[in-house]
């Protein structure tokens, strides 16, 4: 027996020694191991859950002491979650950024803490970037570019962008995917799904499966840069009638699923008021044009760029015509709206703008909100129920109302969670898009300007008029006059 134990211990020693030698020689990053990533995520989830389960035992619900303590628990939990995202990187940062964009759906402690993930994305080394280019394009950097700036212009959760010059003298932006993201993303989403189910088991009121369903559906699309290039060309063609919009041209001969090479476009971020002032760019003009662009995407075409965070929306003076331009970047995440959904969404927004409460209820229910339709209307508009009853176009947004909405996001988190699991999946990215656009408007101090409601209404009228042209055989002149009368009524109301 002693001899057998000695043989087993000797074999184990040899296995561990050889494993250690292998790990040392391959310079394996422990963060690449699934067990490490899962363990870290599970431990963070356990700590956060335990905090929520035990923190309020000796505090009476609803008191000022309870509210103050809840804010502290939200904040330290958000910081733990941010730490997990930064440690596991990749898909975790992407999902964290998504949560950070839900300003009027999640408690402010979470959104403000997770927003910084946009500036804490990891960077791949130059050796890793060269390896991806070598593998996908089959050539060395020097064969493809006259110059290639090693320091990235920007780093995101899935990729980073480098400025380069082609041999014909054109300046391009080269977006290169982080080499490990593709391999890790599927496993990471599985880990998150398991942990979200565990949280739901502990806290039945919180059901975040909507988040995992969206991640599973969208992550493969975002990791396919050829899909991003096709989206860019589609939206450029679709909105070609807007002279203020610039979508960089794709260089298909230098693009693959992991590399996207496009025209280089400079500009300041859309929330940079100092940049706009310095370059003589009108804040109101930018806000109005952004509203026109997104209203057209959502209500008329149903093909929506769903990641308008400030890093993806640049503003500049056109180098040739000196006109103000909006440069739209990062076309990996789009939502395609089904026709029936889009038209009901049009009707709902028309009702919200006018304060037509019977139609607000009707179309909210048709969009899946059920008896939660008042909460749905508040979530969709980030306005109070009082303002919605009066018609959101006629009641200005106040600071106190904004605070009320953010406070309610914490108070009604279980109901919001139920609502997000109830509405069609198409609605989820629209809510994120709405929140990002509202964030930009708040920074520019143009939120709820009358022009934005007019642009939305015009696009809703056009979308519904197209439907009527398909359904009824009246002469085209009839529909033209009908639309013109609606536009005239809008203009009169605005003036």
Please provide a written account of the structure:
It is a single chain. The protein has 495 residues and is of the alpha+beta class. The protein has three domains: 30-120 and 181-221, no CATH class; 126-177 and 224-336, no CATH class; 339-492, no CATH class. Helices cover 61% and strands 9% of the residues. The protein has helices at 2-26, 34-54, 64-88, 91-100, 108-114, 126-137, 141-144, 181-202, 209-222, 225-238, 273-278, 283-301, 339-354, 357-366, 373-381, 385-390, 399-411, 413-422, 425-444, 450-471, 476-494, and strands spanning 145-148, 154-155, 159-166, 171-177, 245-246, 259-263, 268-269, 303-305, 313-317, 324-328, 334-336. Strands 1, 2, 3, 4 and 6 form a five-stranded antiparallel β-sheet that branches. It has a four-stranded mixed β-sheet with strand order 5-10-9-7, with helices on one face. Helix 3 (64-88) packs antiparallel against helix 4 (91-100), helix 13 (339-354) crosses helix 20 (450-471) and helix 14 packs across helix 15. The longest helix has 25 residues, at 2-26. It is globular, with a radius of gyration of 26 Å. The termini are far apart. InterPro entries: ABC1_dom, ADCK1_dom, Kinase-like_dom_sf, Mito_struct-func_regulator. Residues 117-363 form the ABC1 atypical kinase-like domain.
Indicate the mean pLDDT.
85
Tell me, briefly, the overall form: globular
Structural class by SSE content = alpha+beta
What number of structural domains do the residues give?
3
Number of helices: 21
The fraction of residues assigned to DSSP E strands is: 5-15%
Q: Uncertain regions: pLDDT < 50 for 5+ in a row? A: 1-26, 485-495
Total E-strand runs: 11
Query: How many angstroms does the end-to-end distance come to?
Result: 97 Å
Task: Determine the fraction of residues in helical runs and give it as a percent range.
Answer: 55-70%
Largest sheet descriptor:
5 strands, antiparallel
Radius of gyration (Å): 26 Å
């Amino acid at each position: 027996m002693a001899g057998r134990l000695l043989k087993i211990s000797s074999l184990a020693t040899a296995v561990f020694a050889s494993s250690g030698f292998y790990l040392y020689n391959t310079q394996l990053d422990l963060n690449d191991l699934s067990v490490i990533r899962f363990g870290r995520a599970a431990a963070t989830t356990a700590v956060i859950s335990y905090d929520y389960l035990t923190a309020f035992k000796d505090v009476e619900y609803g008191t000022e002491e309870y509210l103050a303590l809840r804010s502290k628990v939200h904040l330290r939990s958000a910081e733990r979650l941010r730490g997990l995202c930064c440690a596991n990187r990749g898909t975790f940062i992407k999902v964290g950024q998504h949560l950070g964009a839900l300003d009027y759906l999640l408690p402010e402690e979470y959104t403000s803490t997770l927003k910084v993930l946009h500036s804490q994305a990891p960077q791949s080394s130059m050796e890793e970037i060269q390896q991806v280019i070598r593998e996908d394009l089959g050539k060395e950097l020097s064969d493809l570019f006259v110059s290639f700036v090693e320091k990235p212009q920007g780093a995101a959760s899935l990729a980073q962008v480098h400025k380069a010059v082609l041999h014909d003298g054109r300046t391009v932006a080269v977006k290169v995917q982080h080499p490990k993201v593709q391999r890790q993303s599927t496993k990471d989403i599985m880990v998150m799904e398991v942990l979200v189910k565990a949280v739901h088991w502990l806290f039945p009121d919180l059901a975040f499966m909507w988040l995992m369903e969206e991640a599973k559906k969208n992550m493969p699309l975002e990791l396919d840069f050829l899909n991003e290039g096709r989206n860019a060309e589609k939206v450029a063609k679709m909105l070609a009638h807007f002279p203020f919009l610039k979508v960089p041209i794709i260089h298909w001969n230098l693009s693959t699923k992991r590399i996207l090479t496009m025209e280089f476009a400079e500009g300041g971020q859309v929330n940079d008021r100092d940049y706009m002032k310095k370059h003589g760019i009108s804040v109101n003009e930018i806000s109005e044009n952004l509203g026109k662009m997104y209203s057209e995407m959502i209500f008329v075409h149903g093909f929506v760029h769903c990641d308008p965070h400030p890093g993806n929306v640049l503003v500049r003076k056109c180098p040739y015509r000196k006109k103000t331009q909006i440069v739209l970047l990062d076309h990996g995440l789009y939502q395609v709206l089904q026709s029936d959904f889009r038209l009901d969404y049009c009707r709902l927004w028309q009702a919200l703008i006018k304060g037509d409460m019977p139609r607000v209820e009707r179309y909210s229910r048709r969009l899946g909100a059920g008896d939660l339709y008042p909460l749905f209307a508040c979530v969709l508009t980030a306005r109070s129920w009082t303002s919605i009853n009066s018609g959101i176009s006629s009641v200005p947004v106040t600071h106190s109302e904004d605070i009320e909405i953010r406070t309610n996001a914490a108070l009604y988190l279980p109901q919001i969670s139920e609502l997000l699991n109830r509405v069609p999946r198409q609605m989820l990215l629209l809510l994120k898009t709405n929140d990002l656009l509202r964030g930009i408007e708040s920074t520019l101090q143009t939120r709820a300007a009358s022009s934005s409601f007019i642009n939305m209404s015009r696009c809703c009228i056009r979308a519904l008029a197209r439907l009527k042209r398909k359904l009824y055989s009246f002469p085209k002149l009839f529909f033209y006059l009908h639309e013109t009368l609606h536009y005239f009524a809008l203009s009169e109301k605005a003036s």
